Amino acid sequence: MNSFEFNKIAGAVLATIFVLFGGSILAEGLFHSVVPETPGYEIVVAEADSDGAEGGAAEAEDPPIAALLQTADAEAGAGQFKKCAACHSAEKGGPNKVGPVLWDVVNRPVASVAGFAYSAAMTEFSQGGSVNWDYEHLNGFLTNPKGYVPGTSMGFAGIKDPEARAELIAYLRTLSDSPAPLPQAPAEDAAPAAPEVTAPGTVVESGEGTDQVQAQAPATTDPDAAQALPGGEAAPTQAAEGEAPAPAAAPQAEAAPAGGETAANADAQPDAAAATPAPAAEQQAPAEAPAAAPQSDAATPAAAAPEQTAAVAGDPAAGEKAFRKCAACHAVGEGAKNKLGPELNGIVGEKIAAVEGYNFSSALTEYAASHPTWTVEELTAWLIDPKGTVPGTKMSFAGIKKPEEVANIIAYLATFDETGAQTGN
């Protein structure tokens, strides 16, 4: 090989090297990548955006936790707690895990569990132990832990469903020897519970379309005011008077002495009048010829008999499920004991404010002086609106808005006698 051939080969090699290095330098200039200070990838959970503008607006639309807790299902909350169990123990005297033990957490001072190393952010949030895990703080923290306490070491993203969150808090409330009282529901939630009562003599339709309720007093705040009963039942005095039109009221009163009760007397003793058998009034009709026509128009007191059976005609099985919202404060069945509220064995027909060993409020005790018995009507009014029925009662439950649910709960309670045995009614 002569020198000329060698020079050509060497030049080709050098040219190739120049093209490769030159292309590399050019590519690095065009596509420059920044090396991160910390190797790896940061995983951002989608829920963390909730402290932004859109997330804040969504949270603002959530119902108040005080209202949600009135009907929250603690048993469903136990299922919600499974997602917490990996980091928290729930039993009394349980150990701290990744997070502190949650026994008796409701109303406990923040960052106060002995032996647990809290983050600086949580310690600062506690303000020296002056801040407690009340319902509002629990709700805010469980909605978005990192947004509520920035810098917390808790990695949980939060629970966005307000009802699921309320169920979890209701379950946490049960993790105590003495569960904290439920918060008082906002006034606007309790307002629809009390049915409207019009002037005396006014007849308004109730749930089923054929049954009616007659107003007994002009004042809606009177605990004895007529209540729309579950399942479309009518007020007791309706059964006694038969909902007669105004012109026939006087003849009917004279023509229905069955059981020794006049219409005026029936107002004073609605329970006795409601029990008056329908045939007695029908037998009087032939003797009182002038009153026969009005009595026929009045849909005779025969309607009273079905209402007696409808008084506890709810579905006990459905009532058992609905009773779960009461079970945090009340017990029923064999061995039931007083809790935050009294045990409810034999409550239907029982004297009001008379459960042995339970300290009733003065408001309910005073109410019992004029309303001695838990009749179906009394229980209905109470379950619909406790504070409206007995102003000053210490029961914080907002009430049940669905009449059929009220009827089902009463039917379920009616299956228990004083000993807690189920009678099968």
What does this structure look like?
- The chain is an all-alpha fold and 425 residues long.
- The chain folds into 3 domains: 56-174, Cytochrome c-like domain (Cytochrome Bc1 Complex, Chain D, domain 2, Orthogonal Bundle), CATH 1.10.760; 198-310, no CATH class; 316-413, Cytochrome Bc1 Complex, Chain D, domain 2.
- The protein contains 21 helices and 2 strands.
- The chain has helices at residues 3-30, 53-60, 65-69, 74-80, 120-125, 135-143, 145-148, 162-174, 187-190, 236-241, 249-255, 263-268, 270-274, 278-284, 292-297, 304-310, 316-322, 362-370, 376-384, 386-389, 403-413, and strands spanning 203-205, 212-214.
- Strands 1-2 form a two-stranded antiparallel sheet.
- A hairpin with a 6-residue loop joins strand 1 and strand 2 (212-214).
- Helix 17 packs across helix 21 and helix 19 crosses helix 21 (403-413).
- The termini are far apart.
- The model is unreliable at 44-60 and 188-310 (pLDDT under 50).
